Amino acid sequence: MKKNDRIWELDALRGICILCVILIHLIFDLIYFIGLDLHLPAWYVFVQQYGGVIFVVLSGCCATLGSRSFRRGCIVFSCGMLISLVTFGMYRLGMASRDVIVWFGVLHLLAERDPQRVVPCVPALIEALDRPEAQTRWEALDALTALATTCPEQLGDAFEGAETALFDEISSTLRYAAFRLLCVWGATSAERSREAWPILDEAIQCYHGDLEYRDMLGCLYEFGQGEIDAEVAEKLALRLKFDAENGKGSYLKARSSEICEMLVKRFGLDLSKKKKRASVKKSDDAEDEE
Predict the structure, then answer these.
(1) 108 pLDDT tier (thresholds 50, 70, 90)
(2) Are 144 and 158 in contact (CB under 8 A)?
(3) Distance between CA atoms of 249 and 258, rounded to whole angstroms?
């Protein structure tokens, strides 16, 4: 494609995506390192989750329109490998923890595209959850999540490793990967939802208000849409009801309300009556103590 034949719309979209990714990283740094309490709108989460993907897709489309695509692809791949080498060097020199190393999630990619090919690796993936490296564990968790709907009965042994990862004190990426696996696996049947719910409930209370909790709400929405037990659905709705009514920040309030409304419609819940019963029970307990 000649210089004058460039499609400016594609270039503009790529430029917008690049600016959005820069903005997302800036906001993350302000919250995580400086501790600013920012009330982020819903579009922030959309850009956070899909901005990079849209940029990659647009870049792939543009690559087919240009010349020397293979050469440029090799250059980009070399840059990716260079980043892996630099981050590994940072780890080896003691400049950062192993979490900083950037790898390629090949197992996760295979599990997404062709789950049956990875099913024989499930025991090895579960065993990898006992490894000390956070990156190894979250990539194993991501691969297991992609397999959760294909062979959920084989993932029961991953529960203990996922629970340990869920309460890791260092890596938020590892915690989120474990939370997502438990949500997807728990949504495959009523029995599994009852098994996963206590640990999910504990995580909701533990990480409520943390940065990754916004993404966890998305997992809870998927969990609520699955084949979960009606009693579990009611407990989840009651847990999120407070944020739906009094949550700080527009996204937290709107997302919690959306999940509650979805659960109420799906399972015919009446949260108002349940709330009144809980209030009466607390009053009775207080009288008994007196």
Answers:
(1) low
(2) yes
(3) 14
The residue assigned the tokens 């890596």 is 171
Which of 84, 108, 96, 252 has its CA nearest to residue 170?
A: 96
Cα–Cα distances in Å, from 65 out to 52, 57, 84? 20, 13, 29
Question: Which among 56, 58, 27 has a CA at the least distance from the CA of 43?
Answer: 27
Distance CA 262, CA 222 (A): 11
User: What does the alpha-carbon distance between residue 72 and residue 124 come to, in Å, rounded to a whole number?
Assistant: 36
- Of 145-154, 190-199, 232-241, 246-255, which range is least confident? 246-255
In 3D space, the residue among 28, 171, 179, 169 whose CA is nearest the CA of residue 98 turns out to be 171
Is the Cα dihedral 80, 144, 47, 96 positive or negative? negative
Taking only the tens place, the pLDDT of each residue in 198-222 is: 999 999 999 887 877 888 998 999 9
Going by pLDDT thresholds of 50, 70 and 90, the confidence category of residue 178 is very high
Q: How far apart are the first and last CA of the chain?
A: 84
